Amino acid sequence: MITSTLKEKGISYLKYILEYSIYVYCFALFFDTFSAVKAISIYLAIFSFILLLILERPKNTKNINIIFFFLLTISVLLSSVFSIDPEYSFSNIKKEFVKSFLLFMSIALFFDTKQIRRLMMVFTGSIFVFLLSGLYSYINFDLDFFTSQTFLVDANQNEYACNIGFIFPFIISLFFIFQKKYLKFSMLILMLFAFMGIILSGTRGAMGAAVTTLLIFVFFVIREILHETNKKHAKNLYIIIISVLITFILSSFFWGEGLKQHLGKTMEHFGTFDNRTEFFWKPAVEAIKKRPVFGWGYGKKIYRNPEVFKDIEPKPFYELKGGLHNTFITVFFHQGIFGGLIYILLIFSCIISLIKTMSKIKFPEKAIYIGLLCAFIGSMTLNSIVISISFLNTAPFFGMAAALTNQHNRNI
């Protein structure tokens, strides 16, 4: 019979394995390479996660964010059952959504505030390499837009800037959290590097998300200053605002003709969202009307199935990559009204739970909550209007929101 001491040691080691497996996987998440590293880390995470569920029953599993994610999982299964190509849909669940589910549940059930902070640091380290890859491509390949075309990352500027935008709020969070001057200065430089990268990418959705992030931080920090009259927060805020404005001005000297023309047509593109309305959204909406409840099936290649749009006009503009260029329409298309509404409610519940929880927490810990809130409002919501984001990329963020709420409930 296993003694209680031996069991506690086993649980401790398993939590350690799970935690660092998640760190490794999330570091490699946005890269096209590191396949072997991702495979090893995810299998270690699955192994430790299953054993932990057997040995230790997690608390606060009735968290509203966890409930909505389970409902989202059900919508994925139902959409696959009623898919136009069930075999492909279920193979895609095995290939992608199982990993998404594991990432979410592992972080939601077994991470606390300290581990969320470490995870933010992991993502920040990852995005530094991500930005260096983009800088190398931008300089060496004389690109019109800031993006990466290396073995590490090969992406168009929209996808590239979106991934930077996800992590941008975490860099600001760590700037407020770190007390040592060299760490704070490092985060400031990385923040400005990321901001310049987003601008030079020409991706207006990512720019909107970055500006929204800055405005949210300004709002909450000003509230903190008014309530606590803390000059330290004010100093940090002034540094960020002045540095960002200087970076924006300096970035204009690096704008190529392609970027200038692209940004100059912003108002012209606004009416059709740069032709997304005609090329993707209208055909998708017509397709949703034909299968409204559970959608056409899970998996991005369903959109490329000619049977879907056989009797629909206009046809999607298949020559362009990037799916339906709208995360919400994508979910409604694949998982129907049931999955689409659950997805929106999941995002909404994460935002509300973060706002409610952070109201009881003070700086610098509050910066963790604000950073994650910015990721949801900026990248997960605003940027999702013009780009399709996979569940695999968003699962860690949903898990972090659930984990922070769970941590607060455990401390009550």
Offer a few descriptive terms.
mainly alpha, 15 helices, 412 residues, globular
What's the gyration radius in Å? 22 Å
* Spatial separation of the terminal alpha carbons: 34 Å
Strand and helix order: HHHHHHHHHHHHHHH
The major beta sheet can be summarized as:
none
Q: List low-confidence stretches.
A: none
Mean residue pLDDT: 89
> Given the helix and strand composition, which structural class is it?
mainly alpha
* Shape call: globular
- Give the percentage of residues in beta strands: under 5%
Number of strands: 0
Classify the helix fraction into a percent range: over 70%
Oligomer: single chain
Number of helices, where a helix is a run of at least 4 consecutive DSSP H or I residues: 15
Describe the structure concisely.
The protein is built from 15 helices and no strands.
Model description:
The chain is 74% helix and 0% strand. The chain is mainly α. The chain is globular and about 60 Å long. The chain starts with a helix and ends with a helix. The mean pLDDT is 89.
Produce the secondary structure layout:
Layout: H1 4-28, H2 35-55, H3 64-81, H4 86-110, H5 113-140, H6 157-177, H7 181-201, H8 204-228, H9 231-251, H10 257-264, H11 266-270, H12 276-290, H13 327-358, H14 366-382, H15 391-411
